[in-house]
Specification:
alpha+beta, two-stranded antiparallel sheet, 8 helices, 218 residues, homodimer, DNA-binding
DNA sequence: ATTTTAATTTAGTTTTAACTAAATTAAATC
DNA sequence: GATTTAATTTAGTTAAAACTAAATTAAAAT
């Protein structure tokens, strides 16, 4: 049960299967194809290969899920990605909308030493700039406090933003323009069928539901 | 004459052609093959492609040299590499023998923003940890003072180490064990047919010619 | 129970960058 | 000048990872 060296594509497949597994129990070819920006036929081909390598379990027409080894590798890639995002934000002054793309390219090429060094330099952080948990060195996912989407708040409630569930550059850009950030306080003013009214630093905005449900609070 | 997007392989070819051009006027297939760790036949194939792209000038059986555009691209890669080496050494505490391999992988994937950020953070440095010049933003090579190999010193001369002409991990490891580093002072004690005797920080060593000629001083 | 639709798989193709083996050219030696 | 040697090129192959088009399977609707 040795860890084989994988191509960047293969690492990306595993990473995306892992992320989709967090939502759906089993992952479809179509769903994967959409997330990877690739045709479903190409996914089938790669999945068959990963199945032979025993990194995924694959039932034709049914879907895939990761094996234990596959999950370990996915978590390693995810650890690289999220450590890099935080490093880019904190040490290279990248803005919220810039960190994802750079981390996406770097995650496949940094060494174990690089990973260990930036982790140490940042005091072994547990969450990245989006509030996503960073798997630990031994690939355990740190547990986050239980969170709710912002639109579930009752009128008058105040809460702290803990996670923003998007990598879309333009959404992140918009949110940061509203001074919305991880660990910021917000207050629910009210809601109607168009969205929710939130108070952020004495300013008040109407946030459409499509955005509000990306914002998870505590 | 637009800059096309190149594969990592192609960037590596251009970089190696550039480096070999510094020594030999025209670069042979064999020489390139050895440096790239690839068979000569493969080099011929790639060179023909780069020739079509007008990044190299290629005369069959005669050799290659870079076109102006090819050289610009080579210098860009070299700038990435050397900025990264310095960044890894100064900010991530990498040792002399560790920086090259990591930079080799990172140089192809970092963005212009990454490049600009670390350059700024380091005060737009002109030389990397081996003393190699870092091409500037507009891809000019900063001129280094004229240097001589250490074995050319006269007895009793003192000099400052400005450049170490190797990327070999074990050589670098050995040299740093002798407290030999860029901008360090050395004194020539004497030389015979086995090598040169140098004084470094009150310690005195016999350095074989094969090593001494890698050490360039001022 | 058919039929329709959507998802998935198969089969065959393309591109990139390596490879090997054989053929060719250039340079060096006799 | 002919021959040997070394370097280079050609031709054809391989592997990875994508693609398209056609075939198949599963699920939903009539």
């Amino acid at each position: 049960m040795d860890k084989p060296r994988l191509s960047e594509s293969q690492e990306d497949y595993l990473k995306h299967i892992f992320k989709l597994s967090e939502i759906h129990d089993t992952v479809s070819m179509q769903h994967l194809a959409k997330n990877l920006g690739v045709r479903p036929a190409s996914v089938t081909g790669m999945i068959k290969k990963l199945n032979k390598m025993e990194l995924v379990e694959y039932k034709p027409y049914k879907g895939v899920h990761l094996t234990d080894i596959g999950e370990k590798i996915a978590l390693e890639v995810l650890r690289h990605h999220r450590l890099l995002e935080l490093y880019l934000a904190d040490h290279l002054h990248y803005s919220w909308d810039e960190i994802h793309d750079e981390a996406e390219r770097l995650e496949h090429v940094i060494s174990e030493k690089f990973e260990a060094t930036i982790s140490e330099l940042m005091g072994h952080p547990t969450h990245d700039p989006h509030g996503d948990p960073i798997p630990s060195v031994d690939l355990e996912i740190p547990d986050s406090p239980d969170l709710n989407p912002a639109h579930a708040l009752e009128n008058g409630d105040t809460a702290t933003i803990r996670r923003v569930m998007t990598q879309d550059k333009d959404i992140l850009n918009l949110l940061s323009r509203l001074d919305l950030c991880i660990d910021c306080e917000i207050e629910m003013i009210g809601s109607d069928n168009t969205g929710v009214r939130l108070k952020i630093n004495d300013n008040q905005y109407l946030i459409p539901y499509s955005l509000a449900k990306l914002i998870w609070v505590h």
